[in-house]
Specification:
Helices cover 46% and strands 4% of the residues. The chain is built from 9 helices and 2 strands; from the N terminus they run αααααββαααα. The chain has a two-stranded antiparallel sheet. The longest helix is centred in the C-terminal third of the chain and has 13 residues, at 114-126. Residues 17-46 are annotated as: Disordered.
């Protein structure tokens, strides 16, 4: 609603306002400082003579100046063709994997693969007395706090099938 109202005021009498602005006299620019005018300098012969005159004393001093430039010595970086990480992470072999070559073989300590995460969540769901948070932390080289958070906030999906007679009731 507010957009319509502002549009009405903005488009009201647009043509006459535009003609009024166009018909106004253009403002005259501010006068320039007299020192900034180069035309007046060109008219004075003393200044022209001073500009084009050569100073022999300055020329001799300029000829005495000798500049020698040298590049700093180039340092060769020994890459060896392979970039090694600054800090080597300890890796561990994964527990499971039935995808063969597509499976992740090594995982950094303190992390788990998706297959392992689903497996440990399912094991904990099916046998919570056997697969406790402490056992999972030791088995997969994880911190106990992270395992507790994982078991609390992530739950694997469960498939539920309804009997045929209840489908009709729904």
């Amino acid at each position: 609603m507010g957009g319509r109202l502002t549009r009405v005021f903005r488009t009201f009498n647009v043509e006459s306002r535009a003609r009024r602005e166009i018909s106004k006299e253009k403002p005259t620019p501010a006068p320039r400082h007299p020192a900034s005018r180069l035309d007046e300098l060109a008219d004075q012969p003393e200044i022209q003579e001073e500009i084009y005159r050569k100073d022999d004393r300055l020329l001799t001093l300029l000829k005495d100046v000798y500049v020698e430039s040298r590049d700093p010595p180039v340092q060769v970086k020994d890459g060896g063709g392979e970039h090694l990480p600054c800090k080597q992470e300890e890796k561990r072999l994964t527990k499971l994997g039935h995808l063969g070559d597509l499976d992740v073989k090594k995982v950094p300590k303190g992390k788990i693969s998706i297959v392992e995460a689903l497996t440990l969540l399912n094991n904990h769901k099916l046998h919570p007395q056997i697969w406790t948070a402490e056992k999972i932390a030791v088995e997969y080289s994880l911190e106990l706090k992270e395992v507790n958070s994982l078991l609390e906030f992530f739950v694997p999906f469960t498939v539920q099938e309804f009997p045929k007679e209840t489908k009709k009731a729904i």
